[in-house]
Each structure stands twice: as C-alpha cells, then as structure tokens.
Amino acid sequence: MKYRVLDVMNDALGLVKKSDLVGATALIRSALSGEPAPDAENSDLDAGRPPMATILPPPRRPLGETLRALRARPFPPPADPVSPPEPPPELGERFLKRAYRGPAGSLAYRLYVPADHERRELALVLMLHGCSQNPEDFALGTRMNGLAEEFGLIVAYPHQPRRANPNGCWNWFDRRHQNRGQGEPAKLAGLAQALAKEFDIRRGRVFAAGLSAGGAMAEILAEAYPDVFEAVGIHSGLPYKSAADVPSAFAAMKGTTTFEPQPLAAGARRCRKIIFHGLADGTVSPVNGERILDEVERGDASLVRSELDWPIEGGRVSRVVLKNGHGATGAEQWLVEGGGHAWFGGDPRGSYTQAVGLDASRVMVRFFLVE
User: Is the whole model's pTM more than 0.90, yes or no?
Assistant: First the structure.
C-alpha cells in the first residue's frame, strides 16, 4: 500500500521520537521510491487506515537532506546522556547497602559487619563523611573496616544525599539540624538505636565520629544525644551551635566568629570526646578544636589536664588529656603540626586523607573502647 508523503513523514517523525532511526529511514525510503514499506515496520501503521489514492512521488531527495528536514521539526530533545556511575571501591562482601526509616525520616547507609560478629561483644561506630564524600570513599579513606574486624565493630556509614545539601554536607550550621528530636541528629540517633538493638550492643558501646562537616555533626550528636552515644570523635570539626546559617558557618570555619558557649545544664551527662585537628588546616581553623576542648573543661571543673608532645613525620604532635578524679578520661585533643584538612593516617586512595605519622582511626577506636 502506498501512502501520501505527508502521512509518511509524520509517521517517520513518530519513529524518530521513539529513537527508531532504522525504522524511520526504511519508511522514508519506501515512500520516496513508491514501494510499500516492509510489513514488520508498518503493521501498526496500516491498522485501520482506509485505502488512499496512489500519487506519484516527487523527485527523490538525498536521505541526508530528508533526515535534516526531520530534525528541524520541533519535538522534545533527547535526554542528556547519563554516564555510568563509577564502581565503588572493593570493600568486601560484608560491606552492605541498607536503608533506615524512622520517625524523623530515612537514611541510606553502608554497614560493615565483621566476619565473627556472632561470637564477640560488639561495639557500634557511626561514621559521618565530610562534604563531597560518600560512604564508600569514607570507608576506604579511614580504613575503619579493617579495625572493625580487629576490634569487633559494627560500622555504619550514613549517606548525606545532594538533595539534602548541594555539596553533600551534613547541615551542622542549620538550626533545624542542631537539636534533639528533629532533623539529621534525630535520624542519626534513630539509626544508632536501631542498630544497637539489632546487634544487641549495650549503650556504653555506641559511638559516632566524623570529618569536617561530619565532625561538626558528631559534636551535635554528643550534645543532643548523650544518652545514646558514649563518646564521639571529632576530626577537623566545629563546636556545637557555632553557626546558625551559611554566612556564620564560613565565619566559624575561618575562626573569626564570636563564639558564644552554650548554657550548661546542671548535672547533665556528658559524652567523652576525642578531637583531632591539623595546625595547617586552611579549611576549618584549628581554633575550633581548641574551643571544643574548652567547652569540655568548662562543663566539668574536676577534670585535670595533662599535656605531652613529640616529633612525628614533618613536625610535631601535641596531645592534651582531661581526666576526672577517678582517672577516667573525659576528653583528648590531638593537634598535628603540618596537618591539613584531612583524616590523619588514612588510605591515600580515599579523599581528604594525609599521612602524618598518626593513625587517627586506631587512636579513636582505642579511646572509644577504654572503659
């Protein structure tokens, strides 16, 4: 059956919209040559169409010219090509993909479970990545999964999606995410409680740690949920409520903001804290680490300070320890000369890691597990 050229062009355009360029080409060629189109291509076009008078085709135009004319017709452009996602680093079959759903919202996360977890007393560590990182990158860079096998740790890596923050940062500077019972702290605390229940982990063995924005969020968890977390690790982070919006966040990171300590509740339980900061950190000023430690001292006048420093690769490291009258450590601070905005002693295949002669992950786990 021969069709009018206008109808054929419309039908060919429909095939182009469906990305069937082969079918469109065959249809155009058959129309211009006066021959019927192949049955396979035209069976759906023939259905219900009344017979039409045969007309002589116009002089045949080159196929390229015909296709250019079709492309000039207005129709929605094709979607942007999607590049295949980069495969995650090889972190083992025990590095699981999971999702948490709770009253405050949902979180995607990665979970590492050590091979012999059923025979050990376990501890839980929530690992909060920094801006532009993801759970796979953070797990690789911190090497925490290796320590999980060694020390019997369940390690969870929550993911902050770009829809929550354009740079993938935890929103530590937003008032909506700084208090108990709401926002990101509520979701993270809910995740920790759910995992502790699932793996039968007692309260005194639940911890959180983070880098940069993740460190700032770990500090928020320490202040908002001291009944959930026994201790937190704050690497290159910032004090609790040191910012309330984006401009004040940049001022806090530079260390130029006027910091107003939060009121202390009488008799309130305190999280133990271990703080790491590089003295050459050009992203988050090391004064922020000092302020976190000052807040610990202000909260407990019984703490006794001791200091020690020694040489490491390329500089020196200073360690401050605050202990109570019973000899229990309330806080530690590690300041690294030459240390930048990076996880100390991390795997160089991960982002934001730096070899400085100090393994922050191992030191952190030791601090967590000392009871």
Answer: no
